[in-house]
Amino acid sequence: MEGVSPGKIRTIHYGLDLPEISGAAKYGHRRVIRQSLGLADNAVLVGAMSRLIEQKGLTHAIAAFKQIDNAYLVVIGDG
After folding, report:
1. CA angle 23, 50, 14 (to 5 degrees)
2. Which end of the chain is more exposed for a tag (fewer CB within 10 A), N or C?
3. What is the Cα–Cα distance from 71 to 66, expressed in whole angstroms?
């Protein structure tokens, strides 16, 4: 971040079991999810789960995904 000392920046990792999620491809879940959404098998699919409030900046992500071919953003949340 510009203007912020590197010593003041911390990465907070999300509490997901990545090997378990990565195993989705092994069991064909990726294909099932894409098919249920009407997407091609090679579509780039990104999920965002958060409170739907302005501070989260999801409007920027939505605008960015509109400009990328074969990439889709699934937003889940309440707010």
Report:
1. 50
2. N
3. 8
CA 79 from centroid of its chain's CA atoms: 18
Is the pLDDT confidence value at 26 over 70? no
Helix (H) or strand (E) holding 49: strand 44-51
> Which phi and psi (to 5°) does residue 49 adopt?
-125, 120
How many whole angstroms separate alpha carbon 46 and alpha carbon 75? 9
Q: What is the pLDDT of residues 35-64, one digit of tens each?
A: 899 999 899 998 888 899 999 889 999 999
The tokens describing 8, both together, are: 């003041």
Separation of alpha carbons 65 and 59, rounded Å: 10
**Tally of helices (H runs) and strands (E runs) in the chain:** 3, 2
